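Need C-alpha cells for this chain, all 263 residues.
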Amino acid sequence: MPSGAPPTPPVLSDGVISLRPPRMDDAEDITAACQDPQSQMWTTIPVPYSLSDAEGWLATRVPLDQWWAAPLWTVTVPPADRWCGNFDLRPDGAGGAEVGFMLAPWARGHGHSTRALRLICTWAFSSLNIEVITWYAYVGNEASRRAARRVGFRIPDVVLRKHKPQRGERRDSWIGDLVPGDLATAARRAEAHYLGPALTPRELDVLAHLARGESNKVIAVELGISENTVKNHVRSILEKLQAKSRAEAVVVGLAQGLTSLPT
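Here are the C-alpha cells for all 263 residues:
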C-alpha cells in the first residue's frame, strides 16, 4: 500500500449486493448471526457467542491499517445497509490469498455468497495482483462449496483428513483454488446455460439427494417430508433447470456447481 495514511477501503457492488467495510454498529447483527447453529457448525467463532465477542472482534478489524492487512467486507442488500455477513481475504504476502466467509441466516438462499465471492476475487486479482485464491470448508458445508464452484473454484472430490482445526478439534476439509482465468470460464459457462429461476434451499437439498441416486421415498424419509412433497420439488427442479429427467437435472446441477457427486 502507498505510504502515509491508508487509503479508504473500496466498496464493491454488482447492483444486487454491496460490500462495505464493517462498522462498530454491526455488532448486534453479528451477534445474532453467530448464535445461529449453522454459523457455529461451519466456522471457528467462539461458542457461546456474545455481544462482547462481536465488539471485541470489530475493534481489531475496523481500523484502516488492520483492514488493508486482511481485507474484510460486510455484505449488505441495498437499499438496506444492514449487516448480512462477512467476507474476508487473507493474503500470504507471496501472491496468494485465502478467502473465508459467513452469511447471516436472514440473507441465505438468494445467491448472495456467490455474488460476493465473485466481486472479492475479481478485486483481489485486479487490485492486489493476487495470483491464486484458496478456499477451504469443513466437509459437509455444501452451501459454501456450491458458491465457490459457481465462481470458478476448482474443488477436487478429495477429503483432507483432520486438515483444519475448530475449537480444539481437527475436522476433515475440502480445498479449492481459483486463478484469474477461472473467473472468466465460470462466467461464460453461466451465460451459456440459462437455468431459469433459482432453486430454493429445499430444492437444492432434494437435488443433492437426486445426485446420490435416491428414490422419492428415501428422500422423503431423509428430509422428513411427504413423498408427494418430494415429487413436487422434483417437478419444480426439472422445470427450473430445463431438464427432461432426474438424471439430466443432476448433470445440469453438477455443471453449474449446484450439487456434487457423493464422495
